Amino acid sequence: MNSEKIEVHGNSAIKCLVAALGIGLFGGQALAMNVLLCNDDSIAAANIRALKSKLVAAGHSVAIAAPVDNQSGSGGALAFLRPIGALTGNERASKLFGMKAGQPGIGTDPSDADVHYVNGSPVAACLYGLDVLAPQKWGGNPDLVISGPNEGNNIGVLNVSSGTYNNIVYAIARGIPAIAFSDARATPLVSWDAALPATHHSYQVASVAMRLIDALVAKKQVAGGKLLPTGMGLNVNIPEVSSGSPADLPFRITKIGFSSNYMPAFYEKLSDSAIAASAGANVALPGISITPGGSKLPTGVVLPKDESPVAESNVVAQKNAITVTPVEVMPEARRVYEEALRLKLEGVAQ
Fold it and tell me: Which residue, 87, 84, 46, 48, is CA-closest to 64?
């Protein structure tokens, strides 16, 4: 995304978002919408189920299309021309919901016909939702695609590797309003249980999403009757809070930035990475990990520091606001870089 547009141009799309977030943050009755939920944590994740329940309670028609297994870190993987195979019975959702080995690679949760699984990548599941499920259920595109809420923040360059984020890229490219929600709490992955109390953290995260959606619906007229301007989506990150609920935090409009605290790096020994160790990969084998602040970096690696006060990572680190970043489909360079390239290629390129 050309994040400088937020600071330089002050265009009408951003003004629409500012107006929506600054006015009308209420839990009032929203116009009913058809909402497709996707994620990369699987249909077994508590966060996506809690959000579904709140959306349905608010009067929206909701369907889930998500991987049958946890696919965190899959990015925009598509697996072109690879048929979707049958279940093995070892998937996260299979173990929780009694799905058996040999069942089709696409199907539904036996207890909820609106929860659809795909034995593939997050984007494969989301595309199934857009191209098969939505036309069957609603006769066309959904009014809104929500990816997440993810278990763990998706910030800075890490978004490139995020299935949660890449899901909304494909929706935005089709002109469908889309929002990626990510929450700071990452481990352990919380599995869905209908008995989870209303005070559970997954419901608090869902309340954040509902507050933002209500705000956007309340100001639809600012964007010409649209939930979001065509070609724009939102990347939302919820910080860890020391006390109270994340639903009590204000929203702050940010930019993606590059975030040295969330850059992936290659480790000769994963055991040297604090986050790898906390995730159970405390092994003396090579692999890739991310580098949150204070972690030991691989020998000789120096990462640049993102100094922008409105970069997602820096706002999340302050733990006093929920970041809302307007995003586009492709990360085109700023105009100043285009002009520099023209000078470099003068006489070579038009």
Answer: 48
| CA 281-41-144 angle, 5° bins | 150
Instruction: Tell me the residue range of the domain where 75 lies.
Output: 5-261+307-331
- Same domain (yes/no): 213, 68: yes
Taking the C-alpha atoms of residue 205 and residue 115, their distance in angstroms, rounded to an integer, is: 19
The whole-angstrom separation of Cα 217 and Cα 130 is 21
Lookup: tokens for 19:
């107006």
The C-alpha atoms of residue 323 and residue 313 are separated, in whole angstroms, by 9
Co-location of 224 and 281 in the same domain: no
What's the CA gap between 276 and 265, in Å, rounded? 12
What does the block give as tokens for 97?
């919901």
Number of neighbouring beta carbons within 10 Å of residue 284: 9
Count CB neighbours of 317 within 10 A.
Answer: 16
**Angstrom distance (rounded) from CA 271 to CA 343:** 47
What are the DSSP calls for 195-243, one per residue?
Answer: T--TTSHHHHHHHHHHHHHHHHHHTGGGGTT-SS-TT-EEEEEEPP-SS
Please give the model's pTM, rounded to 2 decimal places: 0.87
Structure confidence by residue, pLDDT tens digits, 224-239:
788 999 999 999 999 9
Domains held by the chain: number: 2
Which position among 182, 202, 259, 260 bears the catalytic label? 182
| Residue 182 known to be catalytic | yes
Quick: pLDDT tens for 168-201. 999 999 999 999 999 998 766 788 998 999 999 9
Q: Do 206 and 74 have their domain in common?
A: yes
Indicate the SS3 state at residue 106. Answer: strand
